[in-house]
Amino acid sequence: MIIENQNQVTEAVLAEVQRIENPRMREIASAAVRHLHAFAREVKLTEDEFRQACTFIARLGQKTNETHNEVVLLCGSVGLSALVCLLNNGNNGQTETTANMLGPFWRTESPATENGASIVRSATPGPPLFVNALVRNTTGAPVADAEVDVWHSSPEGFYENQDPVQANMNLRGKFRTDSNGRIRFRTVRPAGYPIPVDGPVGDFIRLQRRHNMRPAHLHFLIFKDGYKTHISQVYVNDDPNLETDVQFGVTRALVGNYIRHENEQAPAADVTGPWYSLDFTFTIEPGIAKLPRPPITSKADGDRVQLEILKRG
Ligand SMILES: [Fe+2]
């Protein structure tokens, strides 16, 4: 169609979008076009601003490679990942859920590990942490024989696949729930870590004078036929950044009770100083068990990178 005025641009594009055969794709594409055009009208986007926005989006792609995903980082930093998670879990956003975002650091082949064993696979600082997790379904019954993938960053702020210093698969393990729906493992207490701010996402965070920290957490992915794959993070209750997570991931249901033990016998004989324990219950929902695609695929090599920490101003 030959366009007579600015309103007709939207009509022309929407008419073409209607040609998409798949109804769901058609619905998504037409809503995206409507909202995008409405956004440009609402803010009266100038040509300069539009070019800047195009540059910003192109930089997201240029910054993304096998060991880093800037697009996932941006989606987290504008709360879109958190929103999509909450819309799709807890009976489609109706009830509280223990689901959370996947984040960029999950790997598929983490080593099968016996219940009770340690996932510390190379020298890692930090106080011991003993985790006891229960997987139950929405009726409250324990779910036996579910695969539970666990991963977290080192107390120095790096996942092993970002960090050439750590052994392959350090702080990762795959467990199976026992007949009572439980897994147990030993690790070190996680610490909060900064997200990288050397790309366009960093520019965006600086504009808002936010810090770039994620509060300390453990990641979980629970897989069992007949259930929607349950992706979760359990946050450390005394972390100073729970209220200001740069990725908006912290929900009330996911603040774990990490208990410090000073003078009690730990579950392992070699522990001498203070240690921590965490008991946590996940509720998984009926649905389709399928694994996501890992956002990044390879392990970093060379020197450990320096992560910049921004202060909230
Ligand atoms: Fe994480």
Unreliable segments of 5+ consecutive residues: none
Q: Would you tell me the overall average pLDDT? A: 95
Number of helices: 7
* Largest sheet strand order: 3-2-7-8-9
Largest sheet: 5 strands, mixed
Strand fraction equals 15-25%
Approximately how much helix is present in the residues?
10-25%
Bound compounds, each kind once, are: fe (ii) ion
Task: Please provide the ordered H/E string of secondary-structure elements.
Answer: HHHHHHEEEEEHEEEEEE
User: What is the general shape?
Assistant: globular
Structural class call reads alpha+beta
Radius of gyration from the CA trace?
22 Å
> How widely separated are the two ends?
50 Å
Q: What's the number of extended β-strand segments?
A: 11
What would your notes on this structure say?
There is one protein chain. A five-stranded mixed sheet has the order 3-2-7-8-9, with no helix packed on it. The chain has helices spanning 6-17, 23-43, 47-62, 70-77, 80-88, 90-93, 200-207; strands at 128-137, 147-151, 172-176, 182-188, 193-194, 213-214, 217-223, 230-236, 255-256, 258-261, 275-284. Strand 7 and strand 8 form a beta hairpin. The longest helix is centred in the first third of the chain and has 21 residues, at 23-43. The protein has seven helices and eleven strands. It is globular, with a radius of gyration of 22 Å. With 313 residues, the protein is an alpha+beta fold. Fe (ii) ion binds at residues 103, 105, 153, 214, 217, 219. Fe (ii) ion is lined by residues 103, 105, 153, 214, 217, 219.
